[in-house]
Design a protein that fits this description.
The structure holds two protein chains of two kinds.
Chain A (H helix, E strand, L loop, with lengths): L1 H36 L8 H10 L1 H36 L1 H14 L8 H8 L3 H25 L3 H9 L4 H38 L5 H10 L3 H29 L5
Helix pairs in contact in A: 2-10, 3-4, 3-6, 3-8, 3-9, 5-6, 6-8, 8-9, 8-10, 9-10
Chain B lengths: L1 E8 L9 E8 L4 E5 L6 H8 L7 E6 L2 E2 L7 E4 L11 H11 L4 H14 L15 H13 L5 E5 L7 H18 L2 E5 L3 H7 L2 E6 L5 E6 L14 H31 L1
Parallel strand pairs in B: 3-8, 3-9, 6-7, 7-8
Antiparallel strand pairs in B: 1-2, 1-4, 4-5, 9-10
Helix pairs in contact in B: 2-3, 2-4, 3-4
Classes of the chains: A mainly alpha, B alpha/beta.
The structure holds adenosine-5'-triphosphate (ATP) and magnesium ion.
């Protein structure tokens, strides 16, 4: 068993080396291409993007990043809480499940992002409006993933709990919840990039601060490098949040390894 | 005293009942083995006893009162170990006590003691995936003993063990049974195991099972493996094997007919 996981680690490291090498290759090709085209307002070189990022570092990292991060965090957490509450209620009541589940799977296909302008009508260009976009983007995924997680509980385990005298509440907390834990993490990891996208799009529509808003103002100035710089930060934000989630997952699910 | 009276039971979507007019008695504190061909309804019998299924007709009584009045009088060890992968071995064994809200400290002590008795001292903090099939079965067994019922329903508890571990656990179980004053119902495929452990062996026969054939084991409670070689014990073993073989043949015939109907 130990040798096997060791092998996995090596292949894992190898895979990381390969993907990092590939990334470097892409950046080089991009650099070369933009030098060939030589029109920085169409295709800025990566070095120009990083330069722009460096020049505006204070503005980007002290004003806009915290603003966006706030929206992502608030919206994401509320989406998870709301989605979990719905999932628990639906798992508890078969009646609710039958009523809501088909509806939820259908609403999942609605491009919620396109509803953002409507939300502007309702809430104005406020923090609340941006948080609501993030909530709407993630809520359904979290609910459906968690419902599926609860439902994946093996019948035999439930029966065993019953023979121990466990009531529904104990069956839920001691069996169904741990069973659904991997699904929760899957949902969270999918939610992170979508939250970041949702927040950026909402800011794009208009906001006092935020990476999306900054990117848009650069576009209006035809500053292509400035437009791409915050996108790098957004990507890094999503990657960083997922790395933290990965750590938490490994900690909480040591039994899986 | 555990009594089943004229039980009839049919699984939903199955045309023919599994049991029809089944009756059974087990004295308080007795050790009864149940054998029967695969698919004859042994596990189903346990599901009825622990309340996971309800009989269509007939009564299940414990000391004269219906089981439905008693909360978890039986501790059930399922055929598959069904350990919870996210709990350590010790927490798995503690599970029934945790469900019954017993103090954590005492439950943990009891779980550790029980694990030591099934030869798993030192494995308390491991996760089930790190254990072999036989070790998992022993954890499941320890968990069942911690569930605290007066009747133990053991569904092939030793089937995944190598013969040496199996023999020592059989001896250990006999020893436990003499001290614990529990009634044990024990399902097995192994005729010798059934004889060595129990005071009487019940054989499920027929489709549906209408009754049990009962074979008292001619050995005292204090017994050793050598006694299995005594002529009357050896004869019982041959009789049981012969009966099971004829049942298996009848079962094949029955399955053929069944599939012909469908
Ligand atoms: N949930 C179920 N629904 C319908 N039929 C079932 C169900 N569970 C078991 N059966 C059927 O009932 C019969 C008896 O099953 P049971 O599990 O009691 O057999 P068993 O004697 O324990 O067999 P084995 O020795 O293989 O464990 C089988 O024919 C099986 O197909
Ligand atoms: Mg069975």
């Amino acid at each position: 068993m130990k040798a096997e996981s060791g092998e996995n680690r090596i292949t894992g490291r190898k895979r990381r080396v390969i993907s990092i090498g590939f990334l470097i290759l892409l950046v080089l090709i991009w650099e070369l291409l933009s030098a060939l085209i030589a029109r920085p307002f169409l295709l800025p070189s990566p070095s120009a993007v990083f330069q722009s990022l460096w020049e505006h570092r204070e503005e980007i990292f002290l004003t806009h990043l915290p603003a966006t991060f706030g929206v992502v965090l608030a919206g994401g957490l509320l989406a998870v809480l709301l989605g979990a509450a719905f999932a628990v209620a639906m798992d508890w009541s078969p009646w609710l499940m039958r009523a809501l589940y088909p509806l939820l799977t259908v609403t999942q296909t609605i491009p919620v992002m396109c509803l953002a302008p409507v939300l502007v009508l309702w809430f104005g260009y406020t923090f609340r409006m941006r948080a609501v976009v993030v909530i709407l983007v993630n809520f359904f995924t979290v609910t459906v993933d968690l419902c599926d997680g609860f439902a994946s509980t093996r019948q035999e385990r439930t029966e065993l709990m019953r023979t121990f005298g466990a009531g529904r509440l104990q069956q839920f907390t001691m069996l169904r919840m741990p069973t659904a834990l991997p699904n929760l993490f899957t949902a969270l990891k999918i939610s992170v990039p979508w939250s970041v996208i949702g927040a950026a799009v909402a800011e794009w529509l208009g906001a006092p601060a935020g990476l999306g808003m900054y990117s848009r103002s650069c576009m209006l100035n035809l500053d292509a490098a400035g437009l791409l710089a915050p996108l790098m930060v957004l990507t890094a934000l999503a990657l960083g949040m997922n790395a933290v989630l990965g750590l938490a997952e490994r900690k909480l699910m040591r039994w899986k390894a | 005293m555990l009594t089943l009276e004229n039980i009839r039971f049919t699984y939903p979507n199955a045309g023919i009942p599994i049991f029809d007019g089944l009756s059974l008695q087990a004295e308080r504190g007795s050790f009864v083995s149940i054998i029967g061909a695969s698919g004859s309804g042994k596990t189903t019998l346990f599901r009825l006893l622990n309340g996971l299924e309800q009989p269509e007709a007939g009564r299940i009584l414990i000391d004269g009162e219906p089981v439905t009045a008693r909360k978890h009088f039986a501790s059930y060890m399922p055929q598959q170990d069904l350990l919870f992968p996210w709990l350590t071995v010790e927490k798995n064994v503690m599970l029934p006590m945790t469900v019954q809200k017993q103090p954590a400290e005492r439950s943990a002590d009891k779980a550790r003691a029980m694990l030591a008795q099934v030869g798993l001292a030192g494995w308390e903090d491991h996760y089930p995936r790190e254990l072999s099939g036989g070790m998992r079965q022993r954890v499941s067994f320890a968990r069942t003993l911690c569930a605290g019922g007066d009747v133990l329903l053991l569904d092939e508890p030793f089937s995944a063990l190598d013969s040496i571990t199996r023999i020592s656990l059989q001896e250990w179980l006999l020893d436990q049974w003499r001290h614990l004053e529990k009634t044990i119902l024990f399902i097995t495929h192994d005729v010798e195991e059934a004889i060595f452990l129990s005071q009487k062996v019940l054989v499920l026969t027929g489709h549906p099972v209408t009754g049990l054939q009962e074979f008292p084991v001619p050995m005292p409670a204090e017994r050793s493996r050598e006694m299995l070689l005594e002529p009357q014990v050896a004869r019982l073993k041959e009789d049981l094997i012969a009966l099971l073989r004829s049942e298996a043949k009848a079962g094949e015939q029955y399955n053929l007919n069944e599939s012909g109907i469908r």
